[in-house]
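Q: Given only this backbone (762 positions), what sequence would you predict?
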């Protein structure tokens, strides 16, 4: 007999009612309780926090209620004039930073005390390093790329591991299906990602004609052995080969991942945001949709096998690389929990897919776009558009949307240029008129510009409305120049590519002053910065070596050296003060050429006998006009991907010049690019912005709860960690301010260029 049947009727009602209430309470608790947090979210051992690049932490000390009490706990001066885009990592009680003339420094994460210094790592990837440890933690190592090599350092001692690779390094120029002697730059300045005993790497081979291809590769972290390779420009017989001309793999380059790689560690899936193929703005020699360029590409992290892909720009002619980290989230979709991946793009779109199958959560439409008028160019007739998820940037340039703070003369000039140019979204470049598009090559979402709460399906995007203005011109062989004309040529190059940011007299404008650059950095470093780019500055790979040397000398004010084609100044490397344990990484073999620019014997023309275009066309990036359109220029946008809607949007940053004119909530030109965010389990979003600012934002509604003025600008990702129950946030504040008059680090009582660490009062 059922127990309830033996009880009096009234008692039965009480028990049943009580049980029903208990069931409701239990069910409510089950629904409101978030999933068990993963240990990976309690540390910051990797660039981006963890392998999934969510920038999410499950640390609970800092909350909405006390965040306004944050204060500087300690700081570590970099003791040089370099600006570091480096993103610190923290392992147990040790923080690793880049400082003291590109030295890797291990610090005590509570006090900032130097533990060891590996000095003079010139050419190390600027943005970060990787940490790996064996299961028994007896083997702990830091892996990084430097001068086109992959190297390893003992994380405990700071000394190079000579047994790694061959003689302590892996030559990254090898294995690209090109003669390594013809390969210049290949390493990316983002560090890749660790999965199990593998390090997964992208590359940054350059964006000029005939750059090397952007193979995706994985190496064993202990031996340095190459484990797998995935060709993003397929060879005969490989999937996607038919989307290119039959010989394209012999001369087309890039289609590389220079951005952030995300890994689903439980499923063993790596998500690579793949960039555009060369040449960025003219593709007559690469007819077709060009797989796997501009794809979100899901690979088996163990083997490199393709699982699925989705191409987000076909036959790219706008430099719409995918760079921002794919965000791995769990969402409620059509009544089911879905493991999803969200990808934000430069053109201001958000896409969301089933993480395992690659199926879009909402339909993606192929819509017609304008055709090219350029000879030989065959634009792809359609481009993918999300149908439900709204865009997070403007995508239309209008003459009545010109910056209202321009002078009347500037407004009139730009109205004429816009009205006489071509401005439609996905309008292809031309040699007959200017193409003015928004967002441009560095608009929308870029490095470090995405973060997420992996449990709630909320994705955050730091975005900027940044246009590009460009016009194609035919590539022509340049005649030899005499010394009498060399000065004028160098000045013209400077005016065209450098003056708008660095000033007519090299005194600094939107970029830093360059007058003493010859005393600050050696020629090879200068050459790398010009070719690769740094911060908001794009790379200029088309500048030849002779012009590069002359430009270096011109900026240093040494006209005689410039006329001689000199400028390859040798800078004596000294050891910094402190506990130096090693210097320079491993010694490279004499046969290895570490040059990071275009080598003298690099590929400069198509292989003979191929059916290729007669002419090539090129353009600059047209990035001098960041504030062309009206504010808001930079924002943070929160997406609720359970609903497919934008949850909130706020301006981030404030342009100081506009503030002096009474403007407010404008954001800043070049405001969010390559900055970073942190999402916390306590409902906070930390973000940095141009102007040397750190913000704490209510992740639920976008309300700013706290701000801190950093001593200098910040470029790298911030990081968050906990030691002995105290929670910290560290920010690299090392970049000079655009306007020297705003440099807070020169004010009395203000910190110098430093890694600044904040915490609640003890």
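A: Predicted residues:
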């Amino acid at each position: 007999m059922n127990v309830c049947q033996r009880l009096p009727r009234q008692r039965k009602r009480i028990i049943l009612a009580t049980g029903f209430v208990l069931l409701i309470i239990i069910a409510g608790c089950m629904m409101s309780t978030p999933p068990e947090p993963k240990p990976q979210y309690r540390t910051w051992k990797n660039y981006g926090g963890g392998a999934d690049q969510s920038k999410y932490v499950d640390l609970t000390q800092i909350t909405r209620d006390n965040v306004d009490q944050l204060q500087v706990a300690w700081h570590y001066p970099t003791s040089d004039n370099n600006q570091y885009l480096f993103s610190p990592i923290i392992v147990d009680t040790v923080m690793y930073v880049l400082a003291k003339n590109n030295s890797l420094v291990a610090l005590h994460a509570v006090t900032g005390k130097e533990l060891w210094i590996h000095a003079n790592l010139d050419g190390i990837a600027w943005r970060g390093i990787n940490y790996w440890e064996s299961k028994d933690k007896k083997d702990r190592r830091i892996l990084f790329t430097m001068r086109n090599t992959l190297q390893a350092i003992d994380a405990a001692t700071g000394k190079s591991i000579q047994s790694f690779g061959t003689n302590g390094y892996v030559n990254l120029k090898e294995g690209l299906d090109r003669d390594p002697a013809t390969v210049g730059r290949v390493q990316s300045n983002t560090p890749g990602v660790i999965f199990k005993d593998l390090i997964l790497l992208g590359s940054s081979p350059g964006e000029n004609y005939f750059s090397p291809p952007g193979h995706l590769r994985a190496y064993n972290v202990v031996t340095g052995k190459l484990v797998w390779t995935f060709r993003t420009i397929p060879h005969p017989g490989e999937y996607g080969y038919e989307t290119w001309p039959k010989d394209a793999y012999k001369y087309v380059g890039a289609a590389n991942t220079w951005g952030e790689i995300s890994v689903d560690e439980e499923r063993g899936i790596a998500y690579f945001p793949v960039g555009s193929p060369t040449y960025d703005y003219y593709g007559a020699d690469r007819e077709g949709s060009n797989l796997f360029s501009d794809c979100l590409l899901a690979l088996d992290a163990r083997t490199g096998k393709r699982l699925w892909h989705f191409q987000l720009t076909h036959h790219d002619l706008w430099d719409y690389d995918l760079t921002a980290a794919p965000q791995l989230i769990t969402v409620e979709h059509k009544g089911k929990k879905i493991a999803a991946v969200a990808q934000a793009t430069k053109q201001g779109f958000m896409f969301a897919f089933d993480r395992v199958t690659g199926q879009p959560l909402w339909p993606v439409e192929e819509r017609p776009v304008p055709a090219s008028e350029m000879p030989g160019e065959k634009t792809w007739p359609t481009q993918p558009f999300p149908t439900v998820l709204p865009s997070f940037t403007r995508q239309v340039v209008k003459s009545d949307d010109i910056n209202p703070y321009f002078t009347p003369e500037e407004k009139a000039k730009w109205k004429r240029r816009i009205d006489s140019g071509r401005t439609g979204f996905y309008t292809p470049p031309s040699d007959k008129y200017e193409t003015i598009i928004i967002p441009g090559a560095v608009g929308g979402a870029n490095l470090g510009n995405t973060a997420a709460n992996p449990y709630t399906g909320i994705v955050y995007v730091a975005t900027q409305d940044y246009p590009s203005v460009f016009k194609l011109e035919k590539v022509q062989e340049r005649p030899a120049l005499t010394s009498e004309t060399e000065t004028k040529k160098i000045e013209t190059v400077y005016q065209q590519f450098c003056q708008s940011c660095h000033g007519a007299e090299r005194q600094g404008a939107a970029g830093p002053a360059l007058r003493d650059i010859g005393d600050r950095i050696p020629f090879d470093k200068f050459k790398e910065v010009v070719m690769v780019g740094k911060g908001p500055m794009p790379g200029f790979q088309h500048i030849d070596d002779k012009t590069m040397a002359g430009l270096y000398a011109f900026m240093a004010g040494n006209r005689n050296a410039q006329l001689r084609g000199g400028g390859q100044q040798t800078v004596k490397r000294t050891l910094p003060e402190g506990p130096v344990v090693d210097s320079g990484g491993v010694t490279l073999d004499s046969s290895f050429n570490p040059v990071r620019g275009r080598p003298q014997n690099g590929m400069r023309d198509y292989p003979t006998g191929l059916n290729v275009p007669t002419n090539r066309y090129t353009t600059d990036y047209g990035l001098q006009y960041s504030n062309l359109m009206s504010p808001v220029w930079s924002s943070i946008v929160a997406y609720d991907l359970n609903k497919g809607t934008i949850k909130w949007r706020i301006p981030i940053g404030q342009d100081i010049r506009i503030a002096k004119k009474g403007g407010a909530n404008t954001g800043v030109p070049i405001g969010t690019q390559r900055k970073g965010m942190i999402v916390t389990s306590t409902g906070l979003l930390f973000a940095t912005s141009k102007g040397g600012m750190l913000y704490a934002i209510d992740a639920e509604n976008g309300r700013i709860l706290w701000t801190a003025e950093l001593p200098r600008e910040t470029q790298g990702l911030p990081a968050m960690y906990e030691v002995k129950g105290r929670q910290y946030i560290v920010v690299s504040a090392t970049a000079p301010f655009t306007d020297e008059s705003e440099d807070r680090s020169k004010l009395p009582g203000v910190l110098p260029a430093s890694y600044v660490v904040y915490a609640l009062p003890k």
